[in-house]
Each structure stands twice: as structure tokens, then as C-alpha cells.
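sry for the spam today, last one i promise. C-alpha cells for design, 208 residues
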């Protein structure tokens, strides 16, 4: 029976990097961030509802959702965030469920990449939870580098989530991402071997 694994962790802890490694081993990835974009793409029912609720100001010149405007709005008015989530979340769930069912039907093991799995209590929607772990200081460092953020902004984003140590304690398996990318790859391969997904890892000796 193919499995559904919820992959989570903290912001910038390495989920996408781990998903890429798992793809090499035949896992199929359903990505919450991608589904969130699809939910409000041009011509979607999500975008139509957003225009009905927030007006044409919600659109940019290309007729797509104006992310900067909406981001500012929900940041300043928490009740607007609830309204936006009430539109977008059910559609995101629908897209992810549909993609998951399709992949399972095709016989694939599925990775659900869900950054806020614990925050949104989604443990029951997957067979197992794997947490990609790194320290908060490394999260902050990688986030500053990747998103070109100040240390204050990076800290604020990291501390707005459930602490990564706590997430690790709630996981079925923890993937250590304290080292470099090669070590990460080997940690993923070890887990796959232990769990019987593969007989022998490729044990690659490059960083690719
Ligand atoms: P988010 O939830 O914020 O999208 P994520 O958990 O998917 O993040 P990644 O995008 O995989 O995290 O990693 C965050 C950044 O850190 C990326 O720029 C990635 O290349 C880098 N990174 C990940 N793992 C390592 C590592 N072991 N060594 C060095 N850099 C790493």
C-alpha cells in the first residue's frame, strides 16, 4: 500500500531540499505553497470570491491577485486574514486532496509538503509525519540568506511558528538538517533504508 507522509518543519528548515531528494527515490510531492498559488490563479473560483469580498483593488495590473496589497491588508487587519483564509484554505485542501488521491491511485508514495501541518492540526490527514529539523539559529541564518531579510525580520518569522524542537517531539521521524547538504542527503537515505523504502541508498559522494 502506498503511504502518505506529511513533511513539515520550521520555516527554512529544509523541507523543499528534502522533497527534492525524495523525488529522486520515486516519491511524488504535493506542495501546500504551490496549491495556495493555484487556488487563486487567474480565472479560478478562489480569485472570483476574493474579488467579490475585497473588491477590484485585490487585483494587480495583470488581473492576478495583488499579493503585496493583500499581504499588507491582512497584516494590518486580522479579521481580513480570517476572511481570506476562509476563502483560500478549503480550496487549497481540495486541490491537495485531489492530487494526493490521484497519485495514490497511480501507486505512488506521496509526500505532502505542509509547512504549517502542526499549526493547522493536520496530523490526521497523513499516515506519518516527518520533521526536517535544524536549530533556530541555523533557520534564521538560512532565512536571512535566502530571502535577503534582516535578522529581526528573520527572527520574527521563525518565532511566529511552533518551536521546531516541539515539532520534532511530535514527529514519527526526524530528519537532521544541522549539517551540509550532503549530510542531509545521507540522513534521508538512511531513513528510507530503515523504513524499507529502498534496499540500498545510492550513497552519492557529490553535493548534487
Ligand atoms: P520554507 O518553508 O521557508 O519554504 P524550506 O523548509 O522548504 O523553507 P528550503 O527552501 O529547503 O527550506 O531551505 C532553506 C534554504 O536553506 C534554501 O536556500 C536551501 O538551499 C538552504 N539549505 C537547506 N539545507 C541546507 C544545508 N544542509 N546546508 C546549507 N543550506 C541549506
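last one done:
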Amino acid at each position: 500500500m502506498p503511504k502518505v507522509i506529511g513533511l513539515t518543519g520550521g520555516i527554512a528548515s529544509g523541507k523543499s531540499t528534502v522533497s527534492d531528494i525524495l523525488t529522486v527515490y520515486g516519491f511524488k510531492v504535493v506542495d501546500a505553497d504551490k496549491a495556495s498559488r493555484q487556488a487563486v490563479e487567474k480565472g479560478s473560483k478562489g480569485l472570483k470570491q476574493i474579488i467579490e469580498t475585497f473588491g477590484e483593488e485585490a487585483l494587480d495590473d495583470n488581473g492576478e491577485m495583488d499579493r503585496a496589497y493583500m499581504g499588507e491588508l491582512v497584516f494590518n487587519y486580522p479579521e481580513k486574514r480570517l476572511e481570506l483564509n476562509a476563502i483560500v484554505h478549503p480550496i487549497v485542501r481540495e486541490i491537495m486532496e485531489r492530487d494526493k488521491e490521484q497519485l495514490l491511485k497511480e501507486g505512488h508514495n506521496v509526500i505532502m509538503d505542509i509547512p504549517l501541518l502542526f499549526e493547522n492540526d493536520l496530523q490526521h490527514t497523513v499516515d506519518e509525519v516527518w520533521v526536517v529539523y535544524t536549530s533556530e539559529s541555523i533557520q534564521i541564518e538560512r532565512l536571512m540568506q535566502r530571502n535577503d531579510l534582516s535578522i529581526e525580520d528573520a527572527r520574527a518569522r521563525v518565532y511566529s511558528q511552533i518551536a521546531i524542537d516541539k515539532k520534532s517531539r511530535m514527529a514519527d521521524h526526524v530528519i537532521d538538517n544541522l549539517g551540509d547538504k550532503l549530510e542531509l542527503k545521507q540522513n534521508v537515505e538512511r531513513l528510507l533504508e530503515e523504513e524499507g523504502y529502498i534496499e540500498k541508498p545510492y550513497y552519492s559522494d557529490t553535493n548534487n
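The radius of gyration is 18 Å. ok im logging off now
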